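Run UPF0391 membrane protein OPS25_07105 through structure prediction, thanks.
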Amino acid sequence: MLGWAITFFIIAIIAAVFGFGGIAGAATGIAQFLFFVFVALLVISLVANALRGKSPKV
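Sure, done. The structure for UPF0391 membrane protein OPS25_07105 is below.
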């Protein structure tokens, strides 16, 4: 998910350099959305792992 966000961010930067404002804005919006979804899933994963409380096997 983070890889897709970075990809859309790079597309947005390239489009902005070449003057395609509409495409750059859309790609930035998509990248921002994907980044926040990634962060939300990361937090949910970390909380679920902490609540599970499994001790590591030695």
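Residues 13 and 19 are 10 Å apart (CA to CA).
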